[in-house]
Amino acid sequence: MSNADASVAAANVQLPPAIIGGHTYRCADNSVIAVDFLKGGEIAILRSPERSQQLRMTAPVAGEPFFADGYVVSGSGPRIGFQRPGEPHQECKG
Fold first, then answer.
1. Strand-strand pairing, 55-58 and 43-47
2. 7, 34, 71, 78: which could join 94 in a potential S-S bond, CB 3.0 to 4.6 Å?
3. In terms of DSSP H, where are the helices of the chain?
């Protein structure tokens, strides 16, 4: 690939949204999760010990809860709501 071709290919690359905030939370069941909130308010990335990989969660519109694979995150500040698949909703503090 020539330098010109590489420049055109690089110009067509779309970067993911920037992380606008990330928090580690301790939940009511004493578990710890981490959530990164991305610019635009419709995407969050969940990291938790029971998952081997990060989970990309989406909200239908900014300000609404994030959903993916039965997980739910509501809120994006120092306190959030969190629910694992098949478990009750709980509060978590950053």
1. antiparallel
2. 78
3. 3-11
